[in-house]
Amino acid sequence: MIPNSLDSDRFDPLGGHFNQQGWKMADALRVALAGLGTVGGGVIRLLDTNRDLITRRAGRPIEVVAVSARDRTKDRGVDLSRFDWVDDTAALATHEKADVVVELIGGSDGPALTLARNTLAAGRGFVTANKAMLAHHGLELAQKAEGAGVPLKFEAAVAGGIPVIKGLREGAAANVISNVYGILNGTCNFILSKMEAEGRDFAEVLAEAQALGYAEADPSFDIDGVDAAHKLSILAAIAFGTQPAFDDVAISGIRHVLAADIAEAAALGYRVRLVGVGEAGPHGLFQRVHPHLIPLDHPLAHVTGSTNAVVAQGNFVGRLLFQGAGAGDGPTASAVVADLIDIARGEFGPAFAMPAASLVQEKPADAGERRGRAYLRFTVEDKVGVLAEIAAAMRDAGVSIESLIQRGATAGGGVLVAIVTHEGPERAVAQALERLRGSSSVIGQPLLMHILG
Amino acid sequence: MIPNSLDSDRFDPLGGHFNQQGWKMADALRVALAGLGTVGGGVIRLLDTNRDLITRRAGRPIEVVAVSARDRTKDRGVDLSRFDWVDDTAALATHEKADVVVELIGGSDGPALTLARNTLAAGRGFVTANKAMLAHHGLELAQKAEGAGVPLKFEAAVAGGIPVIKGLREGAAANVISNVYGILNGTCNFILSKMEAEGRDFAEVLAEAQALGYAEADPSFDIDGVDAAHKLSILAAIAFGTQPAFDDVAISGIRHVLAADIAEAAALGYRVRLVGVGEAGPHGLFQRVHPHLIPLDHPLAHVTGSTNAVVAQGNFVGRLLFQGAGAGDGPTASAVVADLIDIARGEFGPAFAMPAASLVQEKPADAGERRGRAYLRFTVEDKVGVLAEIAAAMRDAGVSIESLIQRGATAGGGVLVAIVTHEGPERAVAQALERLRGSSSVIGQPLLMHILG
User: Considering A30, A58, A396, B57, which has the largest number of Cβ atoms within 10 A of its Cβ?
Assistant: First the structure.
């Protein structure tokens, strides 16, 4: 039996674009837009620019009917006089003309969350680019959307314009997915690529990225890995059929990566990328955002600048790669409007690829049980016996060293010792680092990067 | 207004997986399977292996109820006794228990086409991996599916397991797509990669690929570019909103690429790949399958072995890349079952992303008007004046030469002359080749490869 995706008692099928004579033009899908920053402006520009094509593809027009933002007077380069201006953003949830609310305000709680809850409660569809809100409240919102029988969609929340939510939710839906990982933060990848290309250190490149508008004035959500972790927790839920579990993501950012680390990695045949990794296994759900060494024969090694890329491994499809622009008004607007087209077509179902009640609450995996290779870098005093101390700590913890390079004095006065380990349990590496924690020879924090693959 | 995707008078909404209490388990989606080759067997294995997960994701079970193939007695490694065996494949179209027919027979006409027409006429859904049939009859079948209000889906027809039909049809749906191109034939890419890695010539590598089962006994559909052209014509229709126009694809294969060409390309910083290119522009629809030189900084240069990859350029999303396994029973089955999950969810609409009546019949673009750079290789007699003759032909046609390399005698006795042109109109290159056609100094056909980008 071929079903309707929605129960016809709740939704008027006359709005549909099929009828007994085949296809017909139906009523417009009417959109209320909350937030008129660069992405909100991009959505309006996109709907204006590609209007006819979108109508052909969606089977009916998609029309913004109402907008709300903080400042009515700001010039956003688009004509807003066509739309109802709503001062109180929360009122969009029950706007009489709207079928769907698009939320581009941001923030995990506050006005965005209130709007989401109220919109779903009012029986309207909800489209958002808000990864923080989904990471923290995705399960609740999915339950509310299903209870109301309305769409909740968020392609723009992960990897900008790349249709990776759809790729996992639908394209790879036939597969048990064992792992999903990728470059999920364009700011970090821009900074790491630039450090690599120009041999410059983190702080300097960050300052330049901020001046150019590629990094926020307060960049910590990006460079400390929180933004990537929000996205990873959403991808993992869809890939593995688990409840979003942002609190279980182990997070490190790129703040402590030196130009020297990137140079050492390059000498060994690797590039450094901030990678979010999710794995589903017999020991639970593993989620980590961490700078990784990527071998040159892996496609992620060739992802430069602010580009994002996501890899998923399925038991029948093998390895899939999705790559494209991870941010920016155009790509993000493209993803938002793709969601609206799906809704206009009536092609939507449960937000996380299966009913919320069917998502498993999976226990977090113990990272110590994982096996892999690692890069360790110490900055040490230039004195006798330091190398022996590090080597002994490795030996005592059972870490087998594949290569060790010691370079002369750094600008800061210390000496760099970079180690690549053989494959072994991560617990051993953690123990070795613990042993060296009290050492008077080691300056500052050692840097640990995992090697992908 | 949020619609149903189907008119409720025609389809019983009780089959749907939404109801007023939220999600419920609904009736199974019942599948009749035509063709039990490696892919057909893969579909059965996949549905068995991932049964529970697929039920959770699809909202209901997907069950094979009937199968048909030429030889009932052949051991396919899967238990077929559970299914109705139907001797007459055509009878699957009206099998009493089936909601959807999956066609894995192949061939542009004959039994596959009959089955497609009859299935749609009987008001059942149709899923196929048959690119040849879609390239030749896709428009007719899309019209029939829409007329009947039933799904026609074919993710497996292009690029195996990669969800690129979905990526264009839905993921990039908000964009005007200016071009779509990619590596669409795994056999050719396997052969070219192996020629590149091992410095061996085409015939030798092809024979080995055939022995290993990576190439068909009759490989012409693959190596002469016809298979890639089938796929390109389907991608172009979805990307550009045009009617599939296989007859307008200009096709060259890889039969005449020498190891020496690959070596020359490598020396210049390029790799050789068979690329299908589609472009929509003011001058019409351009479609070409041709061996190309790919610069090393382009992701397609790093696609090796039987992997496929597709790039699309949208006016808001920018450049999207989809990459993965382009063939094989597992990946192809993954795509077939993804289509079935979409149908089970009720998430489907017009086959080519918009109603068939809305697809434009676009005139083919004149390739001569295109501008680009090209690689030309001549095998010539080792005698005085040959180089002057070639250079004069280029000059007279207005082709500007960027580099020219002449290498000593080949195994066949001739001398290789490889030329890379500056950017210019393709017409000029064609004219230069035309001028040299009668030359007694040039041995055999010159090889022309376009340079991507």
Answer: B57
